[in-house]
Amino acid sequence: MNATPNPYTGQVEHQQRLDDAAQLEQRIASATAAFAGWSSTPWEQRAGVLRRAAQALRVQAPELAALMRAEMGKLQREGVAEINKCASVCEYYADHAQAMLADEPIVTEARRSYVRHEPLGCVLAVMPWNFPFWQVFRFLAPALMAGNVALLKHAANVPRCADAIARLLAGAGLPDGVFGVLHIDNEQTATVVADRRIRAVSLTGSERAGSAVAANAGRHLKKCVLELGGSDAFIVLADADLEAAVAAAAASRFDNAGQTCIAAKRFIVLPEVADAFVRGLVHAAGQRVYGDPADAQTSLAPMARADLRDELDRQVRQSVAAGAQVLIGGAPLVQTHAGYPATVLDHVAAGMPAYAEELFGPVAAVIRVPDVATAIAVANDTDYGLGGSVWGADVQAAEAVTAALQCGAAFVNAPVRSDPRLPFGGCKRSGFGRELGRAGLLELVNSKTVYLA
């Protein structure tokens, strides 16, 4: 049994029984059997399921947000926004997947040659807790429209969110077996990855989880898509609009209690604006009010688990011991289960955890640099390569900086975010492969060459 304590109260509200071997076999077999029917279902019928799912998501948004709040601590309004985003990705692929996957004619010496995109079969999704619905739907909408069937192994602390997704899709008319939820542990997950009926794996999560799943998938010759950690740079150039930059920095770093892979984490600032930017960021951090995620006045949620809060505290304490300066926050909130305040660390430098490690919580690391060349070097001085943003009035100069960043997404004068229309993913230890956009859709198909002599 897995206990799932409420992140705000610490009280265990649910205990989830793991699937036994017979249940696991039944779900894999059911998905395998459903593939033939679903892959041959006409496009418009598949799209109809996703459109009905989008409608149900919007109607049920308050209840689904409350479920996230109870399981991983998300603010109610942030949860509603997440559910609405899930609806948008369903509608996007319902509208565009058929055209994206149309046969592509290629001119050769043949009478006719083209590339045909066909579904892979049963795809396993291993998903994290920080966006319990969005992470699933951004994988699931393109997977289903491509004609695949899917099994979900969700994070252990959000089992009711996983089950809610299954109920919602069933209510939208998705046939039995096309989507199934697996309540399993890591050892069982390895068994599923190895199963010959599983044709691909999509994982969003930690480096450790990604490395384990990728190694297992490689042993069994399974395609995998990995979206892992990030330590995104937020570069503030000398001519940046500081009011806009500070507002975006605070939202990117402190929303969802800082538990976002593409959140800005390392704030790399030029000397001309460093003091003013830091003052603004400290002020914004001070406005974040910790409290009950159900309370509309709360603007800083609890972290999802107490052990995650404790790990963040270790990173902060070790960084301070190495010379970082705490300007606000910097210690766990007393008498809370998993509370940590909005924190700003100044004068972060190489050799500190706040410089080298991902800070998956509401802690902003400010790194002061003398010039643009050093800013780029520091931005790239990380094992991660998920996203990065650059702030400056001279858009052409800011765009030139993005060209030098080693990451999967670079934004100018906007925080990094995911969008159904744009490919999403990283490089280096942030993973490989893409989700979203047409590129994400093509990850989940067999692109077959057809040649008619």
Automatic annotation (TrEMBL):
Gene Ontology molecular function terms on file: aldehyde dehydrogenase [NAD(P)+] activity; succinate-semialdehyde dehydrogenase (NAD+) activity
Domain annotation Aldehyde dehydrogenase: ranges: 6-450
Superkingdom in the source lineage: Bacteria
InterPro entries: Ald_DH/histidinol_DH, Ald_DH_C, Ald_DH_CS_CYS, Ald_DH_N, Aldehyde_DH_dom, ALDH_GabD1-like, GABD/Sad-like
Pfam families in UniProt: Aldedh
Keywords: NADP, Oxidoreductase
Family indicated by similarity: Belongs to the aldehyde dehydrogenase family.
Name of the protein described by the UniProt record: NAD-dependent succinate-semialdehyde dehydrogenase
Organism (species): Stenotrophomonas koreensis
Lineage of source species: Bacteria, Pseudomonadati, Pseudomonadota, Gammaproteobacteria, Lysobacterales
